[in-house]
Amino acid sequence: MSVDILVFDGDGIGPEIMCSTIAIIELLNAKLKLNINLKKEILGFELLKQKGVTFTDDLLLKSKEADGIILGPVDHNDYPSVSRGGINPSAKFRIELDLYSNIRPAKNYINVKSLSQNMDLVIVRENTEGFYADRNMYDGNGEFSPVPGIGLSLRKITKEASLKIAESAFEIALSRSVNKNISKVHVIHKANVMKITDGIFLDACRHISSKYNDVDYEEMLVDACAAHLVRKPEQFDVILTTNMFGDILSDLATELSGSLGLAGSLNAGKKYAMAQAQHGAAPDIAKKNIANPISLILSSAMLFDWLGKKRKLDKLILASNLINKSVLELLKHKENLTRDLGGKASTTKTTDNLINILNNLI
Ligand code: ATP
Asked: Which atom of ligand 1 is the closest one to the Cα of 75?
């Protein structure tokens, strides 16, 4: 059975880090006979140049036919308005494919300088509603200005989406408990201020928690969580939270643990999944061969693990484990580190070194 994966370079550093990711996948594909078909499509600024839009419905159709997606970073902040073709591909995929769960691990690596110690956690962030104005309305936009100088922003929290994301977080906590001595979900909220919306969210989390007796449960305010991530990160295993809190806390956690450039991420629903680095398109370092490709490579490993478990394809799970193992080995040596990690290695050099390590592991 073949595994069709749709890949998009994206913007900024996207083409460089996707090139590294494809090299790793092709090596694993050849060595482990994974039967992966990679198909590349264009979106973002490149598509805007060719067709006057950054995203098309045709791409959505193609992604629904694929087994998985790897999306390079998109620089949607710099896109023109929607009426001039600037559609955010990341939001489109997340909504249209119902990728409601954004899974964002953050952990310390031996020899990688970091502000935190003993961090090994996963942030599970709701992906389809919350404060995100482009996705929380059936029609129209969740942010608007009734008169000049006044802006209003709506936050949508539903019982249905909260139950789904809570289930996803508890399942992740269970699966992590195999290798860890803690199994705990921290639910992060601001129910002291947003009593109704975070009240609905907390009710849903408590309901799901009651079905998972083997997973500990704790609630924490989002401001306290930010402080605790700095002070005592080892207390966290799985952090379950709403869309915007999850976005902010995951940047904090990954930077504390080393660099955004190491932060893999998966967007998953019941049917589809999309690997996507936690970081953005980083236009400040694009085309310089200095970007760290590890985040996108680890994101792809997360996709392989998800697909392997879903389709019962053990070889894909093996490929995912091999990527994680080779990255651990890579980061042990200073000469392999890119600039964001305090080293001097280029994107291509880091990739070549990772390929050598993988070749020795297989
Ligand atoms: P977005 O809002 O789309 O997530 P952003 O504005 O938060 O994007 P990023 O593009 O993630 O910003 O970049 C933040 C900083 O981190 C920049 O200085 C960038 O150069 C750096 N950075 C991001 N990704 C990487 C990477 N893979 N390798 C090295 N540095 C990176």
From this structure: 3
